[in-house]
Design a protein that fits this description.
Blueprint (H helix, E strand, L loop, with lengths): L2 H6 L1 H10 L3 H14 L3 H13 L3 H18 L5 H12 L3 H16 L13 H10 L8 H12 L11 H5 L5 H7 L5 H18 L3 H15 L6 H11 L11
Helix pairs in contact: 2-3, 2-4, 3-4, 4-5, 5-6, 6-7, 6-8, 6-14, 7-8, 8-9, 11-12, 12-13, 13-14
Length: 249
Amino acid sequence: MPQTDYDEYPEYLGWELFKQGKNLEAIDAYTRGLAKRKDCATYNNRSLAYWTIGDFDSAMSDLRTSDELSMKDFGRSDYNLNRIGAITWIAGNHLKAAEIWSDVIRMHSKNEFSKGDAAGDIGCGLHLWFASCFQEAAEFRKISLQFLRKKAKTKAIRSFPGPMAGYILGQTHEDAILEAAKYPVPARGFCIGYFYIAMMAKLKGDDNRFRELLSKAVEYGKARMLEREYYLANHLLSIKELPLLAQHL
């Protein structure tokens, strides 16, 4: 993009800087963009830069603002709330993260979202299942599985990451998941797919494979740096001692 466009739309420069790992410069560019126009996408993107440098409070503040603007301009989706849940989990409040994702499921049951994705909005169910893999949030496993069972019966589940519901429920093998992950965006699909397959490996006690698969999730996630699973996988790889696992298997 020409420099003149970056002058008028510094938020575009912010995204380029973010992809280069220049997070502080990206935050500055996004902030200059927001001074020109309040846009939900720019707040959302700036939250990623804040998240990456560990400024979780600023990241969540931006997501809440993005959510408010999105509701006013386009209708509400669960996207920002799911990301707030992921940031909360990485910040160390695992029970609160599970409560956030559980609340998103409750909001879906009451049709409080006017926008959805092609896969039937199963992200909150997958995230809650992930949280329930650990003892701190094991009580939420039933809620996550009930939600995924319901979604697994819908036509939307054919779109990725929809097939992940069948995998979590034991209805689909990981080879089928990785085949489905190729479409429509391989980087996104493999990041998500490898993350949940890694968690299943961890529950089965295979720590080496768990870390190997998480590394693959991170590698594919680097291409977009948008998937919540990318950040969760990066975090899990960075900590020496994981929270205690729940006894699901």
